[in-house]
Specification:
The chain is mainly alpha-helical and about 160 residues long. It has five helices and two strands. The longest helix has 24 residues. Helix 1 packs antiparallel against helix 2, helix 3 packs antiparallel against helix 4 and helix 4 packs antiparallel against helix 5. Strands 1-2 form a two-stranded antiparallel sheet. A hairpin with a 2-residue loop joins strand 1 and strand 2.
Length: about 160
């Protein structure tokens, strides 16, 4: 089986790190507004979605460059994965009792798919950074987000814009 050459794990790319960290920070900042206003999609959800989109973009660009001259469209991998994860995410998201549940889980699944694609492409620095940032967003940020019982969404008769 012929595979693309992997990007070696001992090689660290600060450009890659800056792109992914910038996406994570900007996603968190975008989610902070929703968090402070009591909406269901808060910091972790926005951070994961923005970070996963950046990781997917970097992965697509890198894979296309690695397959120099090959007659193929690597973006089809991402289109199919995005559609699949969208269907799963839509099935996970539940609106019950005036609250939305599982948004972070849906975003987390998307990130997991991106990490899986990057693993298959041998993009080890991307895999490591994506995994670490994703875990930080899902664990450390849980400490600063309000409990689900304190979370209210617009139209539920509680917190509003």
């Amino acid at each position: 089986m012929d595979l693309n050459d992997p990007i070696l794990a001992h090689w660290f790319d600060y450009d890659l790190l800056s792109r992914l960290v910038a996406a994570a920070v900007l996603g968190l900042v975008l989610g902070l507004d929703r968090e402070l206003r009591g909406h269901a999609a808060g910091m972790r959800t926005h951070g994961l979605v923005c970070f996963a989109a950046a990781a997917m973009t970097v992965s697509a660009i890198s894979l296309y460059s690695q397959l120099d001259g090959a007659r193929m469209d690597p973006l089809r991998i991402y289109e199919a994965t995005g559609a699949f994860i969208g269907i799963i995410g839509a099935g996970l998201i539940v609106f019950s009792g005036g609250r939305v549940h599982n948004l972070t889980t849906a975003a987390h699944l998307w990130l997991a798919a991106v990490i899986g694609i990057a693993c298959g492409a041998g993009q080890w620095p991307l895999v490591v950074i994506a995994s670490i940032v994703g875990l930080i967003m899902l664990t450390v940020l849980r400490l600063v987000e309000p409990k689900d019982s304190d979370r209210h969404i617009e139209g539920s008769g509680h917190a509003k814009d």
